[in-house]
What we know:
Structural class: alpha/beta
Order of helices and strands: HEHEHEH
Largest sheet: 3 strands, parallel
Shape: globular
Number of strands: 3
Strand content: 5-15%
Amino acid sequence: HFVEKVGNCAEAANRLGSSRYDAVILDDLMPPDGWTREHGTRTDDKYGIDVLRWMRQHGPNKSTKAVMLGHTGPDSMDPEISMLMVSSALSKPVLPSNLAAVVLASMHNR
Length: 110
């Protein structure tokens, strides 16, 4: 599998708006660099959820499998993520092998 990495919300939206992906991994605390108020107006620094919401409304990834990483644990993450069709939510830190297993499982559960 091919993996692409972005450094902030603006880069993520740019890629998600122009390319189709099999799965997307988002961090709930992604840096907002270049992310404008028109994309989201978070007051809690959880810009990754704004990117997920944007992805569900624009571009070719409206139904792409999404895995959300969070700092607070899956049970205490923003309740909106369940409405945004998140395949899995994992709390950080995440072992690379666990993340890979979750992403592969979500891709096979189409």
